[in-house]
């Protein structure tokens, strides 16, 4: 048996142990997350995003704005495709299904291919109420129950708490829905 064969032999008898993709644990206080990321520059456009989002797998700050869209011309058809930074990042970071948190609303955003949705929030105030879009200005704290729900939904890819999916062909509609999410329950 060759030296390589000897090295590989013990591995053959061992079963593979796959680790599931884990969501990063957000800070207990939303204020800590906000203070850390707000007004930081996007790595792609070097501007402070109007609609900053954070990847819940790697912690990278992203723009949901049009400035970071990539444009692709399709040779076979006279078609131009715009891809948001959220979609591009989800593709490379988590195989096209991504989870993000919006800094301006505390909402969790789900990205699957060319569709996105607002999941809800994992941050609640002291009375266990949401402060969607941070309108009331109350301190928000991480809700362990909602974080577990999010982890279950992610693991099963069953988005039980998503009521509407948005096509990212019209990303401005999705961005407006995030801003107005306090109107939707």
From TrEMBL:
Residues annotated as domain E3 ubiquitin-protein ligase UBR-like C-terminal: 24-155
An individual GO BP term: protein ubiquitination
Cellular component terms (Gene Ontology): cytoplasm; ubiquitin ligase complex
InterPro entries named in the record: E3_ligase_UBR-like_C, UBR1-like
Pfam families for the chain: PRT6_C (PF18995)
UniProt catalytic activity: S-ubiquitinyl-[E2 ubiquitin-conjugating enzyme]-L-cysteine + [acceptor protein]-L-lysine = [E2 ubiquitin-conjugating enzyme]-L-cysteine + N(6)-ubiquitinyl-[acceptor protein]-L-lysine
Pathway stated in the Swiss-Prot or TrEMBL entry: Protein modification; protein ubiquitination
EC numbers for this chain: 2.3.2.27
The UniProt record lists the keyword Glycoprotein: no
Family: Belongs to the E3 ubiquitin-protein ligase UBR1-like family.
Record's protein name: E3 ubiquitin-protein ligase
Species this chain originates from: Caenorhabditis remanei (Caenorhabditis vulgaris)
């Amino acid at each position: 048996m060759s030296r390589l064969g000897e090295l590989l032999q013990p591995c053959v008898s061992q079963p593979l142990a796959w680790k599931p993709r884990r969501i990063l644990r957000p800070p207990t206080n939303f204020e800590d997350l906000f203070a850390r990321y707000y007004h930081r520059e996007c790595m792609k456009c070097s501007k402070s995003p109007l609609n900053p989002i954070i990847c819940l797998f790697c912690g990278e700050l992203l723009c949901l704005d049009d400035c970071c869209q990539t444009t692709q011309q399709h040779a076979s058809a006279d078609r131009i495709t715009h891809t948001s930074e959220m979609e591009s990042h989800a593709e490379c970071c988590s195989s096209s299904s991504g989870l993000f948190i919006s800094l301006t609303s505390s909402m969790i955003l789900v990205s699957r291919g060319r569709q996105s949705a607002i999941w809800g929030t994992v941050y609640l105030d002291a009375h266990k109420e949401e402060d969607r879009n941070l309108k009331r200005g109350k301190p928000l704290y991480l809700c362990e129950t909602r974080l577990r729900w999010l982890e279950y939904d992610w693991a099963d890819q069953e988005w039980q708490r998503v009521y509407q999916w948005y096509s990212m062909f019209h990303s401005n509609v999705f961005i407006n829905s995030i801003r107005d999410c306090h109107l939707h329950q």
